[in-house]
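Re: that chain you flagged

S.,

Sorry for the slow reply, it's been a week of failed gels. I finally had a moment to sit down with the sequence you sent. For the record, here it is as I used it:
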Amino acid sequence: MTETSIPSDRMDASAKHVFWASYFGWLLDGYDTTIYAFVLVASLLFILPNSGISKTLLPSYGLMFFAIFLIGWGTAFIFGPLADKIGRMKTLGIAILLYALGTFFSGLSYNVFEFGIARFIAGFGLGAEWFIGGTGVSEVFPEKTRHIWAGRFHSAWYAGFILAAVTTPLLLEYVFPASYGWRAIFFIGIIPAGILAYIRIRAKEPEVWKRKKELHGDKMSLSMSFKVLFSNKYRKTTLLMILVMIPVITGLYGGTLFAPTAITNLVNYSIAHGGLAAGTAATWYVVLGGTTISAFTLLFCLLMPYMVQRVGRKATLTLFMVFMIIGLLLAFGVAYNAHNLYMFLPLLILLGIGGADFSVFSLWVPEIYPTEARAGGFALITALGRYAGAGLVFVISALTAATGSLGTSLAYGALIFVVGIILLMFVTEDRHKELDRTVDKMALEAESQ
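Prediction finished late last night. Pasting the structure tokens below so you have them in one place:
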């Protein structure tokens, strides 16, 4: 396939639509995750009594609904092989619809059963955005700029976090009454999905997938995608990358996603001990902390392509994981346990830098597999880590109860990144690897010869 040279700061028409459809899909993931954190308490204060459940169980149900969302996120791996079969943009459209339905019914829920189903559906739809978007973006840009656009694409999640963190508290404080504000926030979450649906309609399938589909037709199937992933040629890499992804994802859940809870606890402690004025709202400290993490992650997602070009994928990923280790130990093990809010907040910069570890996968994973298994491979590698992350929510809760300290239990998360670095040593890296754009033979057929 002949590539067209596209300058790094420009896109042709087909690449533009694929990029923005993928970008805003991944942005929605960060946006929805963040708005849930802000409306969780208000929504459960209504839903639990309406279900005959005591409000004192709110923390437990908050963790449970978050885990349900993550399970839906992980279950979305089935969209990977589906995208290999019917196309990246078609599958993205299905995922957008599911997200919209899940978010809409989250706002309509009246009991825990309805809310749980709605959060699962929302997670199921959002879970596909990363690997479908990352696959599509990788296929529409030539090798000379592919790494740059992969970094730009991955920064979308953190842009969504910042957007939600800045706007949601303002809407809840000044626009919507407390009685139904949480419902309105969920309904507003559908608006970006509508914009994304419009972009998706205009986006065409990547040319490399279209050409392979035209050549192989019905052979491009869900079962073929899985067979390629576990063929002799790819089995070892698939299993190793799954193992590396598990500590990366669980480490994220154990660190950055628990930061809002940690900040709230520190603010309340400061108020109780005279460090802050009585009545000080924790909300804006949470916004500051979350925005700090996301801003630095976004920055290093954009820097990641240049780091990879200079030192390679493995070294860049290792460096980011080292930042997570140091950040978890200092922010939670030291600052949080010392009840020092003003030490804790700047240390979140380290977690922000380390959080860019995910962006390396957006560049690296698509180049590992051929077109007929690219989205499926990306999806499978992320799925098990997401399930492990859902389980970790309860592990951290149990550790906190056992140690008496959220900070200590989260500091233990540094250990899992050490395991990740060790596992990464066994992954083979080709620093000059290019995306497979061949269409003459399917990978499994070539493997069997």
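What I noticed first: Residues 13-448 form a domain with the Growth Hormone; Chain: A; fold (CATH 1.20.1250.20).

Talk soon,
D.
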